[in-house]
Structures are given as structure tokens and as C-alpha cells.
Design goal:
Chain lengths: 111, 115
């Protein structure tokens, strides 16, 4: 069983829709949960991070973490064509640990 | 202002050669990392350095040797390149400490192609 599972997609939705992306994980030691956006041939760009369980909102983006279910989500409201990218979940126990990534979900927002 | 920069952006070389990739960060972070992104876009940690000391060394062939001359730089030297080394290599940095969070900031990547 992989440490972090993420559906690679592609996920195609019309502009303006609410997008739901999610990951499941198996390692209980993970405490910090991040979402990155990666455009083609670019480096991952940090969108949000959440510590432990709970919700966090930043503009059109909402991150949710449910540690009891080992399940994290990213919601994008009012999706735009410019949101088309690969979204990577990542997690760590903290400190100087490396991030453990999901495989990324390729999201396409249709104009 | 580029926060995490890498050189070169593209690297094409023959099997058996030795090459280096350089990384610099101007964020004042004390921890730097190397990640490898394979052809299936899967990102995996290779090394982590904190204050110039090696912290993480995942199962990576010893042909890969990171070197950190100071806190702002982490270079990756690869000996005897193999076809399977073809990938995109990303450098990242973070601040580890009481005032730092776990966020890691990534460079633009170095696309290595071994022929």
C-alpha cells in the first residue's frame, strides 16, 4: 500500500464549478498537510498548508483534513480555466522531514 | 526576485558522464532538499540538509552526492549517469525551527536527459 493515494485523473469540469480533490494516507505520523499546484514544466507552487485536523480557507480555496479517516481534501470554488494544472497533496511529520507526495490529480477547467 | 533558483534548467548528456546541478535560495531558510520527479510525474524526496548537515538520505544510489557549501546553496553531483536518471530534479527549501513552518518552496526544476 502506497503511503499517499491520489487519483491521477484527468478531472474535467466546466468553468465556475466547485472542484473537489482529495488524498488518503496511511502514516499516522503525518501532522502537516499541504496542497501544491504544478503547471506544465514548472515547479510545484504551495497553495495551502494545514496542521492536524480541521479546515482552512484562502480565497477560493478550502483545505480540509480529517486525521481520524486519514483523508484530506482541497475544494476550489468558482473554478477558472487558469486553475487547470496538476494538484499535488503532500504531507510530513514536520521538522526537516521531506514531503511525501501523492501522484497528483490533473485538473482541466473547460471554458 | 527568484526565491529558489536552479541551474541549469535543461541538461542533456551521455551515459557515463558526470554532471552537477546547482541550487540557491534567498529566503534565509536553513533547510534544503532535493526531489526527483519521474516520467509519471511522481515527486520523491532524495536528500535533506539542515544547516549544511545531511538529515535525510533516502534510498538513492551513491552515484548521487549532495554538497552544501553554505545554508543558501545545495548542489547535486551525479557520477556515471544512467538512462534511468533521466527525470526532473527539484530543489526546495524551508525554515526548520520554532518560528518556521513546514512549508517547502520549490525551484523551477532541472530537466535531465541521459542519452
Amino acid at each position: 500500500q502506497k503511503e499517499v493515494e491520489q487519483d491521477p485523473g484527468p478531472l474535467s469540469v466546466p468553468e465556475g464549478a466547485i472542484v473537489s480533490l482529495n488524498c488518503t494516507y496511511s502514516n499516522s505520523a503525518f501532522q502537516y498537510f499541504m496542497w501544491y499546484r504544478q503547471y506544465s514544466r514548472k515547479g510545484p507552487e504551495l497553495l495551502m498548508y494545514t496542521y492536524s485536523s480541521g479546515n482552512k480557507e484562502d480565497g477560493r480555496f478550502t483545505a480540509q483534513v480529517d486525521k481520524s479517516s486519514k483523508y484530506i481534501s482541497l475544494f476550489i470554488r468558482d473554478s477558472q480555466p487558469s486553475d487547470s494544472a496538476t494538484y499535488l497533496c503532500a504531507m510530513t511529520g514536520g521538522g526537516a522531514d521531506g514531503l511525501t507526495f501523492g501522484k497528483g490529480t490533473h485538473l482541466i477547467i473547460q471554458p | 526576485d527568484t526565491a529558489v533558483s536552479q541551474t541549469p534548467k535543461y541538461l542533456v548528456t551521455q551515459m557515463g558522464n558526470d554532471k552537477s546541478i546547482k541550487c540557491e535560495q534567498n529566503l534565509g531558510h536553513d533547510t534544503m532538499y532535493w526531489y526527483k520527479q519521474d516520467s509519471k510525474k511522481f515527486l520523491k524526496i532524495m536528500f535533506s540538509y539542515n544547516n549544511k548537515e545531511l538529515i535525510i538520505n533516502e534510498t538513492v544510489p551513491n552515484r548521487f552526492s549532495p554538497k552544501s557549501p553554505d545554508k543558501a546553496h545545495l548542489n547535486l553531483h551525479i557520477n556515471s549517469l544512467e538512462l534511468g536518471d533521466s527525470a526532473v530534479y527539484f530543489c526546495a527549501s524551508s525554515h526548520h525551527g520554532r518560528t518556521g513552518g513546514p512549508e517547502q518552496f520549490f525551484g523551477p526544476g532541472t530537466r535531465l536527459t541521459v542519452l
